């Protein structure tokens, strides 16, 4: 997929305030500091489309971007950051789950996982929740350039092993580096093929 245009649409504090759900939508989520904004910017060939920050939990709203005038990319708040109060964390979790479960044009959720770490309980729990909730999703491993290749591969394989304890078939998995733009084309190809399938089958998101 060639990115011709990528523009910010709006930020929403409630899922009901999101743009009209009339186009295919692909959302990105992960633990705070997983490199979500950097990956989005790399995919869109845009230096600062999504705002990056050294402060975990910076994204506190649902941020929508229009890509090529025919699909939405959504930047969701991170889950599991420790540097906010329990009440704020609960509000974020409610915002995220309500969006994921109620946004009818959400075609796929990309769950970002930091490849530098061994399997983290919070990531595994979120992935399990997606499966139990019937949410279509893919797993995206980030920051593979920060490790030696063998170490990154081992961590990815460790995650697969852990997931196979409860999953017979794993979702689509992507291995990425925002800095080197690894994996970006693969994700965009998936989005393009999915959009073409939806168009060819006259899929409508109207209720």
TrEMBL record:
Keywords for this protein: Cell cycle, Cell division, GTP-binding, Magnesium, Metal-binding, Nucleotide-binding, Septation
Keyword Nucleotide-binding applies: yes
EngB-type G domain ranges (all copies): 22-197
InterPro entries: G_ENGB_dom, GTP-bd, GTP-bd_ribosome_bio_YsxC, P-loop_NTPase
Signal peptide: none
Entry superkingdom: Bacteria
Cofactor(s) needed by this chain: Mg(2+)
CDD domains from the UniProt entry: YihA_EngB
SUPFAM superfamilies: P-loop containing nucleoside triphosphate hydrolases
One Pfam family from the record: MMR_HSR1
GO molecular function: GTP binding; metal ion binding
Protein role: Necessary for normal cell division and for the maintenance of normal septation.
Protein family according to the UniProt entry: Belongs to the TRAFAC class TrmE-Era-EngA-EngB-Septin-like GTPase superfamily. EngB GTPase family.
Name of this chain's protein: Probable GTP-binding protein EngB
Source organism (scientific name): Chryseobacterium cheonjiense
